[in-house]
């Protein structure tokens, strides 16, 4: 039985008077892929940003390998110390929808910079890791190129390589193909599918329903900051109980 890497309990978040997450709870098991579905504004990206420490939760608890990033103390989310937060942060990688590459760095340096600065790898080791990933993602010929010289699909594959270079235990994708045209979308989806076949633990926010059905072990459907429905991929994509879930999947599949 797969161990649970991430356990979220009753996570809530508001921006001013606007509640964007309401009592979000789920689990992500090692080697599994979780698809996070829902219309724009449902809280999906905020959830990923909380898990990857780009936002702070107001309430709830979040555990990595049973180690708390934060726990609810009865009135608020009480965060662990910086040492634990950093340790957990190194286990997660996030691939953004708009690439977030450094425009003044080559592809190779985009992938090596954090390895050297954060993981304290020497330059040779960092470059070896980067080159192996570029080769794997069919980008080796772009090592000396700058982001402005790449297509959108190539940029997104570089951002995936950059995340993988940090050796995360869990990789998060925030609508990784939303900025791409259909042909370039296939490039990126093929990379994510390959990672799923290699049993990389992932959570993917996506509107690509057929793709999500193909790679997911589990899925959650969110709307208005709530989880409306969750289950294994067959129960969500082919036999959803909630009418709203069925409507959304149908509308995004056509």
UniProtKB/TrEMBL annotation:
Keywords per UniProt: Amino-acid transport, ATP-binding, Cell membrane, Coiled coil, Membrane, Nucleotide-binding, Transport
Coiled-coil blocks: 109-136
Domain ABC transporter: 6-249
Pfam families per the UniProt record, alphabetical: ABC_tran (PF00005)
Subcellular location, record wording: Cell membrane
Family recorded in the similarity comment: Belongs to the ABC transporter superfamily.
Name of the molecule in the record: Amino acid ABC transporter ATP-binding protein
